[in-house]
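Lab notebook: predicted structure, single chain.

Context: the supervisor wants predicted structures on file for every construct in the current expression panel, including those that have not yet been purified. This is the next one on the list. No modifications to the sequence; it matches the entry in the shared construct table.
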Amino acid sequence: MACFQWQQQQQSPEPLELKTGDILLIRSGFHAQYAELGAKDEREVGEAWPPASCGVDQDLRLLKWLWDSHVAAVGGDSPAWEGFPSDDKADFTFHEVLLAGWGCPIAEMLWLEDLAASCRERKRWTFFLTSAPLNVHGGVASPANMLALA
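Prediction complete. Output recorded below exactly as produced.
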């Protein structure tokens, strides 16, 4: 199911509510499954062309919701935040809009399994998230080096 549709259909007593400056993390389980692959399967996934991975759908409603929510950043445990290959019908990609259009960072391939377990244990899904990327002049990407504090 598309991320935005799933979020809209939740009947949780605590619905997802983003506040200005929040960071939205999406855990798909991709990284955990990838970590379980043997060397041969890992190589096949890495060399697949065109690359394919799970992620959020190129849904304009989700893009508008992110804008209206004033998120500071987004991230997830898959190779790209949005699913690839992307929808040919969409006239945008999240990477283009979030990074180049809004200056909104995207964190990818995060290990979220331990964080999810801790959140479940505490029954609390909010926390302080900090990141200290590498200080490389002219760099455009870096390991996230993130730390979540509950």
